[in-house]
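WARN no homologs supplied; continuing
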Amino acid sequence: MENDNTTNSYDSAHLAIQDTLYVIGGKWKLVILCLLVSGGKMHFGELSRATGISPRILSKELQEMMLNKLVSRTVLDTKPVTVEYSATKYAKSLKEVLTAMIKWGKNHRDEIIKS
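OK structure emitted
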């Protein structure tokens, strides 16, 4: 009986991790989220410069993130038209995860440099 519970727990964790990676996985999504969660609103050009992501790839990533309710897009009434992106309240729920990943990444870099 315990084995069934362990298997169910593993299956549940496995699905949760798959779902999470599907939404925030890839080379750029976490970088974009870090900027928007910590920095607030940013124009498309600012995001492209800050991340070094090509406009084509950035546009694709932002569209996927909007579909997953992580990023909101606001078209400003300016000449020329300006588009502003921000993290949604839902995306901000990832702040602890992002902070933990930043901490782990720094520790990992230090560990590798020591070797």
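Helices lie at 2-24, 29-39, 44-51, 55-67, 89-92, 95-114.
OK
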